[in-house]
Design goal:
Helix 2 links the parallel strand 3 and strand 4. Strands 1, 2, 3, 4, 5, 6 and 7 form a 7-stranded mixed β-sheet that branches. Helices cover 28% and strands 24% of the residues. By secondary structure, it is an alpha/beta fold.
Length: 179
């Protein structure tokens, strides 16, 4: 079975055996768990199709100065990375509203609430089919999201999970997203 849940609920459910394996957007730093990074994907800029930055093939981060950048709500690694990028380049990090999902962020960009940075796999599956928004890679210094597989270190299936993680990582590598 595949289930979705809030990030803060998942480690407890893994620990108590409700879940066997987690796929997370960040590592769990806990000796009780084994975390294997499956891929590191860059975040791509997502803007309305008629936005001035849509004209570029790649966007220099300095061109983000003065823009309002939307991010996930606090507690997500993407939120912190976008906040640091905003500080660095002089962009306004939107704090009045935040997305709870990547879809919400994409829709907020579509509605003209600002621009955002979204993970490459998400861009590939959900943004590139859109006509109202476009994605552009940053020319340098793009934040990254790690996709991580996590399981209980003491699990009797530890070796099987390692093989599954390696298979997933190898299958993603041809997409040009893995490190």
């Amino acid at each position: 079975m595949v289930r979705e849940d809030r990030l803060e609920n998942l480690p407890g459910k893994l620990s108590d055996g409700a879940h066997d394996v987690l796929l997370l957007p960040e590592r769990l730093d806990d000796p009780e768990f084994t975390s294997v990074v499956l891929l590191c994907e860059p975040l791509h800029l997502v803007v309305q199709a008629d936005h001035r930055l849509a004209a570029f093939d790649t966007v220099d981060p300095k061109n983000l100065a003065g823009e309002t950048i939307l991010s996930m709500e606090r507690g997500h690694r993407i939120h912190d990375q976008i906040a640091r990028l905003c500080d660095k380049v002089g962009a306004a990090h939107a704090t009045d509203y935040a997305g709870t999902t990547l879809d919400t962020l994409r829709l907020m960009v579509t509605c003209g609430m600002g621009i955002s940075l979204l993970p490459a796999l998400y861009v590939r599956s959900d943004v590139q089919r859109e006509t109202q928004v476009v994605s552009r890679p940053l020319s340098i210094g793009a934040p990254v999201r790690e996709l991580t597989m996590v399981w209980r270190t003491a699990s009797p299936r530890h070796k099987a999970y390692q093989k599954i993680a390696k298979t997933i990582s190898n299958s993603i590598a041809p997409w040009g997203l893995a490190d």
